[in-house]
Design brief:
By secondary structure, the chain is α/β, with parallel strands linked by helices. Helix content is 24%, strand content 30%. It has 2 domains: 178 residues, 3-Layer(bba) Sandwich (FAD/NAD(P)-binding domain); 110 residues, FAD/NAD(P)-binding domain (3-Layer(bba) Sandwich). Bound molecules: flavin-adenine dinucleotide.
Length: 302
C-alpha cells in the first residue's frame, strides 16, 4: 500500500515527525537502522523532562507510544535507495523491500568523523565529548583538554573554560591571532603546542594526552569538534541541494523543512548547523507539519 510518508531515520527528528503524521491518521512508515548519533553516550542531558535518561530509553519510549497509532509502521533496516517524483516515490531497503510513498522525510542524521588519533574513538561519548552543554556538568570541574581540529577550536576552548581548567592542544593548528590569544588568556586557557599522537588510559578514566615530544598531559575529559557528514547519499541521489554550514554540508531546507526537491523533506542534524536532541525534535515536528500540509497543498511547501 502506498504510504503518505516514509521517514528515513527513527531518531529524535524522525520520531517527532511520526507523532504529527500518525496523530493526523496518515499512513507513515519509519525505516530505521537503529544507530542514533548519541549511541556512544550512556546518558542524555538537557532534554526537557528526561535529563539523565539514556538516549536509547527516550527513543524506545517514543517507539512504544507511536506503536499505538494504527497508521504508523516501523521497518527495521537501512534505506538503501530512493527514487521517483512528487506523490510517486519508491524507497528500497537493504532487505530488498520496496515501499511506495507520496512524501519522503530524510531524518537520518550525521556521522561524526574524529581525527585519527589512537585512543580517541574508544573514548567518544565517555571522556571524549563534542558538546559541553550536553556533558560538561558531569565532568565536575578540574583539568579538561580541547584538541584543536579547526580555527574555531580556540573559541570552543574559551567556552569550555566555564566547566574546568582548560588546556588547548593546538595539534598542528596555526598560532591563534592576537585577539584570540587575549580571549584565551582572559578565560585562563593554557596553550599546549605540539602534535597529539595518542590518548592513553582506559576510556572511562582520565586521559593521558601523549605528544610527539614524548610528554603526556593528564586531563579528566577532552572536547573535540569532529567533522560532520550527512549520513548516506540519499539526499544527493534524490537531487536535494546542500548548504554550507560552519560544521560542514547540510541539506538545504525552507521554514517547513522542505528540501529543494518537491515532496522530499529533511529534519534534524542533517539539515541544521548545530544539533541536539531538542532542536532535532523541534525540526521533526516542523517537518511533520510540512509533510502533512503538503499532502493537501503541494505547491505551498515543496
Ligand atoms: C556522543 C554524543 C552525545 C550526545 N549527547 C547529547 C545530549 O546529552 N543531549 C542532547 O541534546 N544531544 C546530544 N547529542 C546530540 C544528539 O545525539 C543529536 O543532535 C541527535 O541525535 C540528532 O537527532 P537526529 O534525529 O537528527 O539523528 P539521530 O539521532 O542520529 O538519528 C538518525 C537515525 O537514522 C538512522 N539512519 C541513518 N541512515 C539511515 C538509513 N539510510 N536508513 C534507515 N535509517 C537510517 C540511524 O540509525 C538513526 O537511528 C550527542 C551527540 C553525540 C555525538
Amino acid at each position: 500500500m502506498q504510504q503518505d510518508a516514509i521517514i528515513i531515520g527513527g531518531g529524535f527528528a524522525g520520531l517527532s515527525a511520526a507523532y504529527i503524521l500518525g496523530r493526523a491518521r496518515r499512513h507513515v512508515t519509519i525505516i530505521d537502522s537503529g544507530t542514533p548519533r548519541n549511541r556512544f553516550a550512556a546518558h542524555a542531558h538537557g532534554v526537557l523532562g528526561h535529563d539523565g535518561k539514556s538516549g536509547a530509553a527516550i527513543l524506545a519510549e517514543a517507539r512504544a507510544q507511536l506503536s499505538a497509532y494504527p497508521t504508523v509502521t516501523f521497518l527495521r533496516g537501512e534505506a538503501d535507495s530512493a527514487e521517483g517524483t512528487l506523490d510517486d516515490f519508491d524507497v528500497r531497503t537493504d532487505s530488498g523491500e520496496v515501499v511506495a510513498t507520496r512524501r519522503i522525510l530524510l531524518a537520518s542524521g550525521v556521522e561524526d568523523r574524529l581525527p585519527d588519533i589512537p585512543g580517541l574513538q574508544e573514548r567518544w561519548g565517555q571522556t571524549a565529548l563534542h558538546c559541553p552543554y550536553c556533558h560538561g556538568y558531569e565532568i565536575g570541574g578540574g583539568p579538561i583538554g580541547v584538541i584543536a581540529t579547526q580555527p574555531m577550536s580556540a573559541h570552543q576552548a574559551a567556552v569550555v573554560a566555564d566547566w574546568g581548567d582548560v588546556t588547548l592542544f593546538t595539534n598542528g593548528m596555526p598560532e591563534p591571532d592576537e585577539a584570540t590569544l587575549d580571549l584565551l588568556a582572559q578565560r585562563s586557557v593554557r596553550l599546549q603546542p605540539g602534535t597529539v599522537i595518542a590518548i592513553d588510559g582506559a576510556p572511562d578514566a582520565p586521559a593521558q594526552v601523549r605528544l610527539a615530544n614524548g610528554t603526556s598531559v593528564e586531563v579528566k575529559a577532552l572536547f573535540i569538534a569532529p567533522e560532520l557528514h550527512i549520513r548516506g547519499t540519499l539526499a544527493q541521489d534524490l537531487g536535494c541541494a546542500l548548504d554550507d554550514s560552519p560544521a560542514g554540508k547540510i541539506i538545504a531546507t525552507n521554514a517547513m523543512k522542505a528540501t529543494t526537491v518537491a515532496g522530499v523533506f529533511a529534519a534534524g542534524d542533517n539539515a541544521r548547523a548545530f544539533g541536539n536532541i531538542t532542536l532535532s525534535s523541534a525540526d521533526g515536528v516542523m517537518a511533520g507539519l510540512g509533510v502533512h500540509q503538503s499532502l493537501m497543498f503541494p505547491v505551498a511547501h515543496s
